[in-house]
Design brief:
This protein is α/β, with parallel strands linked by helices and 507 residues long. Helices cover 34% and strands 20% of the residues. A hairpin with a 2-residue loop joins strand 3 and strand 4 (48-50). The longest helix is centred in the C-terminal third of the chain and has 27 residues, at 473-499. It is globular and about 65 Å long. Mean pLDDT is 88; it is low at 502-507.
Length: 507
């Protein structure tokens, strides 16, 4: 028998489920969040806080992002914490270092200096991306359900997109792909896509490609406190609306009870918890493991296709002396050591720890089929990262303090005689800590969405990065907004039926 009961239980402490939990708590529903094994946002190494994974803050000015932040009373807090820079992103190419300016004239002038001959073509592409941005801003602000599943939802999306220039699969727009194959600018922007979203570059539709590239031109944000601050802010909002957050607990099993909801058994304590609705915020494969009957999920995969992991995100952290950082280097950038090898690109983040030290974080993708081989890139990921940095910072070997990757299974490595390192370990170290990038057999709604929010099991919803993988940070807000809208509408209908005029008795 359940010892407690909640309206909603949310599994997972990633961005999507936390946003959904906060939105539902705001509606007056009693919410419980279980961490479900979600790793801590950071660990401390040699008194330096390190974030192994943090969302890339692009598209913060999107209408759906701003609307959700406004509903959660976080809009002003986020705005004040965002690093105010007009050129906070760089393309670090073998022969060029290009600042990406939000001002169109400055951006085109920068291209004219760095890559002569491409300015006129770049002007046309930039203008097209701005038009796409405006059209999609209008579309995403309509409050539609993504992805649409019912007849009414599909009709609403069809009507909203009837006057646009794209088809249902999101094809029909031009972007940097119209440049010749091998062009450094095309290679650089294509290499950004897996880092801005949860899709490989080859899986993007024209719509999602154009949307993300337009976001980059509008600026890549840096949030003071990073993902750790945002997670704690969402925890606080959930608790302030009467919800509970238990980040160290997770469900061991889920037993559906039809119209009565679900019974959830916790792995750590054996406690049973009841709920009316359940929101699953980790990869969908984990949901299948929790259910007593996997047949409904098998039927779902037969209908929409089962996601397959194709690559993993691997981060390497290098602490260097601040004086060695090149003048003019921006907080975020794409490092492309070889123009033709886009699969070896690094997403580079820089954070000044103090007056003397700077932390550089390089994130790359490792193909899934190479992970368990004798020549696995994980064995060489640290040296490869240093090799890439040497092209950018020639004297890095003399001024590097330590290097670490929590994903390769090795201990932190002191450099230049600094061998003793103290490390807190909220993170388990090893390849299993890497986050997967999936391939989806089918994608819908302009190529934005992959998996549905409604699962075949009554009262269980999916709210993770697999729902709208094509939009990255913005897609997280779009998913959370859609799921919370579906659940809240159900409760409003029940309340209306309970409180309608037919329920009132005249005296």
């Amino acid at each position: 028998m359940p010892t407690s009961f909640y309206d909603i239980v949310v599994l997972g402490a990633h961005l999507e489920p936390l946003l959904c939990a906060a939105l539902l708590g705001r509606e007056g529903l009693r919410v419980l969040v279980l961490g479900q094994g979600t790793p801590e946002p950071s660990y401390t190494l040699d008194d330096v806080e390190v974030e192994p994974y943090s969302p890339v803050f692009v598209g913060v000015q999107s209408p759906v992002v701003q609307n959700v932040l406004e509903l959660l009373a976080l809009r002003q807090d986020v705005r004040q914490r965002m690093l105010e820079r007009h050129d906070s992103f760089q393309l670090l190419l073998p022969q060029n270092r290009i600042n990406v300016f939000s001002d169109t004239d400055a951006w085109l002038a920068e291209l004219g200096r760095e890559i002569p001959g491409v300015r006129h073509q770049a002007a046309d592409i930039t203008r097209t991306l701005a038009e796409v941005q405006g059209e999609l801003d209008v579309l995403f602000s309509r409050g539609l359900v993504w992805p649409p599943e019912t007849f009414l939802e599909r009709q609403q999306l069809s009507l909203a997109t009837s006057v646009q220039r794209y088809d249902r699969q999101g094809q029909g727009w031009t972007s940097w792909k119209q440049l010749a194959n091998g062009h450094p600018l095309r290679s650089a922007f294509e290499a950004t896509l897996p880092h801005l979203s949860s899709l490989l570059a080859s899986q993007h539709s024209d719509a999602t490609r154009a949307r993300l590239h337009a976001h980059v031109l509008n600026g890549v944000g840096q949030l003071a406190g990073g993902w750790g601050w945002l997670r704690e802010a969402l925890f606080s909002r959930i608790r302030s609306w009467g919800g509970d957050v238990r980040p160290r607990d997770g469900a061991e099993s889920i037993v559906p009870n039809g119209r009565q909801g679900h019974s959830i058994r916790l792995a750590r304590t054996g406690e049973e918890i009841g709920c009316s609705q359940l929101v699953h915020g980790t990869p969908i494969g984990a949901l299948s493991q929790l259910l007593p009957d996997r047949a409904p999920m098998t039927a779902l995969f037969e209908r929409v296709g089962e996601p397959r992991s194709r690559a993993y995100r691997c981060s390497v952290h290098v602490l260097v002396a601040r004086k060695v950082v090149p003048r003019g280097m921006e907080p975020s950038g794409l490092l492309l050591p070889e123009a033709s090898a886009t699969d070896r690109a690094y997403w580079l983040k820089m954070r000044h720890v103090d007056a003397d030290r700077t932390l550089l974080t390089l994130t790359t993708l490792i193909d899934e089929h190479l992970i368990d081989t004798a020549s696995s890139p994980l064995r060489f990921v640290r040296e490869d990262a240093l090799t890439g940095l040497r092209a950018l910072i020639p004297f890095i070997d003399e001024h590097a303090i330590w290097i670490d990757s929590p994903h390769d299974g090795l201990a932190p490595q002191g450099l230049n005689g600094n061998a003793e390192l103290s490390c807190s370990e909220p993170w388990a170290r090893g390849p299993h800590t890497m986050r997967a990038v999936y391939e989806y057999p089918t994608r819908r709604a302009l190529g934005v969405c992959a998996l549905p929010t409604r699962t075949p099991v009554r009262g269980i919803y999916l709210c993770n990065e697999q729902v709208a993988p094509g939009l990255g940070f913005e897609g997280s807000f779009l998913t959370a907004s859609s799921v919370s809208r579906l659940i809240a509408a159900k409760y409003r209908k029940q309340d209306w039926l309970r409180r309608g005029p037919w329920a009132r008795r005249s005296v």
